[in-house]
Amino acid sequence: MIKVLIVDDSAAIRALLRDIIRQDKELQLVAEAGDPYEARELIKVHNPDVLTLDVEMPRMDGITFLKNLMRLRPMPVIMLSTLTTKGAEIAIEALESGAIDCLAKPRLLSDGNLEAFAWELISRLKAAASSRRFLMQRKALAEAQALNWQCPEPLRRQQILAIGASTGGTEAIRDVLMAIPQQCPPIVITQHIPPMFSARFANRLDGCCRMHVQEATDGQVLQPGNAYIAPGDYHMRLHRYAGRMMIRLDQGDPVNRHRPSVDAMFDSLLDGKTENVTAMLLTGMGRDGAQGLRQLFDNGAYTLAQDEQSSMVWGMPAAAVQLGAVAAVLPLSQMASAVIEHWKQLAAMSV
């Protein structure tokens, strides 16, 4: 059984979470806390496997409590945040501070919204509990080092790097992008993330990476030296137009229960010259992206998957490995260097 502790000052939200958790036989609700001070004592008593943590609470905010928890007693935490500008900014800060995942509270309590929220919560609680081993060794993982290489201009316009990720992906994507030179081919990224959070995520990356990182907009033509993040609740697909790759956003049906979906992005790249595509799957729960990666691999793309040891949740990369969809399985710290070595080989062949 996975022991869960709820930390939220709202009695209504605690009741909602309580009802959802009790629906699943693998989850056990061991306690509820109305604020971090109460939670601190309950953690000592119940030693939960995972806890849900509200962002905005009286007496002590969720971020302060999270930072203290990660310093003194690291454990898997799912942050619950409102879909507001402030809530989105704090949610991204929470992920940077050690939270395993962040889930937006449902704005409308309709049956459809509640069903989707319940599935997301249960899935993420289970994934977070399985990440405890990773969390304990997180500080031992090496930070990606910035790599210097001037990618030739023709190659920058021919190649494309596509990245898919879910749970734990915000930090993994940051580590990969920080190691890639500014003068690089265009990069497209689908991270499972709620609406509004994606813009804040892109802004954070833009502030620490050498290329320009932005939330994608419909109709954009991919440009070298730029990375594009799929907006929350929109599939990002790539289409060839007048010899260039263009972004198309849509709110079609979820794929693998996700919108944006990694498979939707990977599948769209089959319309172009797949030998010019490098695609990677990073940490995340489920199977989204695995089938699309296999299709790209079969059509000549260079494909990579993050290894189990460096993944917070080895779900999506594991599914790709099981399908025989990858050319290499690598630790996170080697993903960027493998991409650059591949580009160097292509550059040498074109001389």
UniProtKB/TrEMBL annotation:
Domain CheB-type methylesterase: 154-341
Residue ranges of domain Response regulatory in the record: 3-120
SUPFAM superfamilies: CheY-like (SSF52172), Methylesterase CheB, C-terminal domain (SSF52738)
Record keyword Cell membrane present: no
Catalysed reactions listed for this entry: [protein]-L-glutamate 5-O-methyl ester + H2O = L-glutamyl-[protein] + methanol + H(+); L-glutaminyl-[protein] + H2O = L-glutamyl-[protein] + NH4(+)
Subcellular location: Cytoplasm
Gene Ontology molecular function: protein-glutamate methylesterase activity
Highest taxon of the lineage: Bacteria
The keyword Protein biosynthesis is assigned to this record: no
Xref: SMART domains: REC
Active-site residues, record numbering mapped to chain: 166, 192, 288
Role description: Involved in chemotaxis. Part of a chemotaxis signal transduction system that modulates chemotaxis in response to various stimuli. Catalyzes the demethylation of specific methylglutamate residues introduced into the chemoreceptors (methyl-accepting chemotaxis proteins or MCP) by CheR. Also mediates the irreversible deamidation of specific glutamine residues to glutamic acid.
Family named by the database record: Belongs to the CheB family.
PANTHER family, alphabetized: PROTEIN-GLUTAMATE METHYLESTERASE/PROTEIN-GLUTAMINE GLUTAMINASE (PTHR42872), PROTEIN-GLUTAMATE METHYLESTERASE_PROTEIN-GLUTAMINE GLUTAMINASE (PTHR42872:SF6)
Protein name: Protein-glutamate methylesterase/protein-glutamine glutaminase
Gene (name only): cheB
